[in-house]
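Known limitations

Files may contain more than one protein. Parsers should not assume a single record per file. Below, a two-record file is shown to illustrate correct handling: read the sequence, read the token line, then continue until end of file.
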Amino acid sequence: MSQALSLPVNLSLGSIEDYFGAVNLMPRFNAEEERGLARRFRDDGDLDAARQLVLSNLRFVVHIARGYLGYGLPLPDLIQEGNIGLMKAVKRYDPEVGVRLVSFAVHWIRAEIHEYIIQNWRIVKIATTKAQRKLFFNLRKFKTRLGWFSQDEAQAVADELGVGLDSVYEMESRLSNQDMAFDTHPEDDGEERDSSPAHYLRQADADPAEVLAEVEWDERRQALLASAIAELDERSRDILACRWLNEEKLTLHDLAARYQVSAERIRQLENGAMKKLKKALLEEA
């Protein structure tokens, strides 16, 4: 349905003031008119009726989106996400329930805006579960009023939201931290430039030539090791496999019982086989 509807002003073009003016000119419907349009869309798939329902409530989306300006995200983007929620609400609205569309749509509008904020407020996602999202939005309201929490205040928040005290402290810490650019702008200089993570964090696999050389050397060592093992006698190969390669390792005494020799003899055979492998690898290195 969203692809078939067009809004009166494209938020990516023109000014936000033009959009406000356009949505405020949209006609409003009383309860009976709204139910009639909703029935036309539900029963007949009338997209024009759905479009009228959406357009008549765009001003309400603007009102809700303004409440999220404190997150530092562009108001047009918040409105756009809210509009998506409104269209989802129109699609699911049942005119026979007896509530106005605007009351039903609040959940869908806020849900889309919340999802947008969670996805874009920080580079690293700050809340991934339903409980964390609830804590994120409510905790910001409490912090606006209280600032840093005392232990009693944190416990009161935890009790009110039905979460653990540790969860409150963890989310408070996430809210207090800020994203840091990995690299500074070329025009930056001085101490701030030197403290950029790019100056003290090194990506281990940054050089493709080094990565390729390491892969080739690992493959070479594997081939040398397989060749050296093949040169051992059958008993030595079995001892090495049972002591080092198999998932279930055997003890010296287990192998001593298998070959009817002492545990010390098994140890000597193992050490001898290991020396041969090391010598073969060093000679080819």
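...continuing to the second record:
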Amino acid sequence: MKSTRKSQSAILSKLGIEALNEMQEQAALAIDSVDEVILLSPTGSGKTLAFLLPLIAILDENIPEVQAMIIVPSRELAIQIEQVARDMGSGYKINTVYGGRPFSKDKMELAHTPHLIIGTPGRLADHMRRGTFSTEWVKTLILDEFDKSLEIGFEEEMDEIIYNLPNAYRKIMTSATQGVDIPDFVGLKKPMTIDYLADGVKKLDIKAIISPDKDKLDTLVTAIRHLGNQPAIVFLNFKDAINRVSDHLDDCDIPHGCFYGGLDQHDRERALLKFRNGTHQLLIATDLAARGIDVPEIKFIIHYHLPIREEEFTHRNGRTARMHSDGTAYVLHWKDEELPDFIYGLPEEKLTENHKITKSIWTTLFISGGRKDKISKGDIAGLFFKIGKLKKDQLGIIELKSDCAFVAVSTSALNSVIQKVDNQRVKKRKVRVYTI
């Protein structure tokens, strides 16, 4: 049988990456050399690729069983890792399981056994209890953002999962936070630690925006208009407050999306999708968005509510200034508000500009066909270029899912393109196309 495995250079070329950074090279070397690795590196430094590259090299395409498991604390992080793994074009089957969607859908997808499974503790433990897949061949276990997945609340399920992986001798743990106690049940013996946390995020600036009023809504609007039309996240501590902020931004004609735990999984995924493809430039979110979403072009974040813990301050700030980009985190606080000990000595940003906040040039369309229909991104691009008559600069990001796809198209061409492509055939399947 012809091998489908791709070389590291081919994978990096497909991802558009010329070379690994120092942390990624050191992590790959460690994972190749020892069985237990703890990787500590700032958010946005490329940890996902740092463990996925050596993991892909370890998998055996001739064994049609689950060989590696990645455990993550949130659905969003699971989806993000899956997307990176798919973008690598490794040739291995990958599945993601998490709460918030029917168990039967998981079971159907797992009927064709993946080589790699990614999931949240609760859903993985449930699958293992029901024997949906064999754990006999799982030799590699990765705990990504282990500082969250080992917190109380996940502990019982994590203990159960690791107990039922007796052959997982290779363990890789990653975090952007220092000083986390690792429970005995993880079973680490002599791990090698790769620590790049001292490097920080070199291109991140942190500044203060001072509100003259205790109610900071008007200052937030002034800040957004001052900073202009740039991809950004505004962080709040409570999901109930998001509705109040969102309503005020609507009243001020500031387009935005919302992302928090109270939304169902369907709406959460679409909120992130629209943010990634530029349909929304501004996202109002709780700390759920502080981990596991990767939007490389975020230019700034605003702490509307002060984070309760330093760890969340770090993770929020890590949403901007990612990889080779720069970015700024703004702490929006009332002039008489007492700041936590870990926030001090910030230079003040004077709000002088008044840019008009305009609607995005992109609109997101839903397409009722995906990977299981043998549809590729190239097929979708062909539909919009050949039949929809779009120009190259009128087609944005395409995201392909198992049973559907989403594409950003130029808002100016929206009405004419939908009329042309709706109910057309793609790979023998007639697809519906409409705005979401």
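Parsers that stop after the first record will miss the second one. For reference, the second record is described as follows. The CA atoms of residues 79 and 165 lie 23 Å apart.
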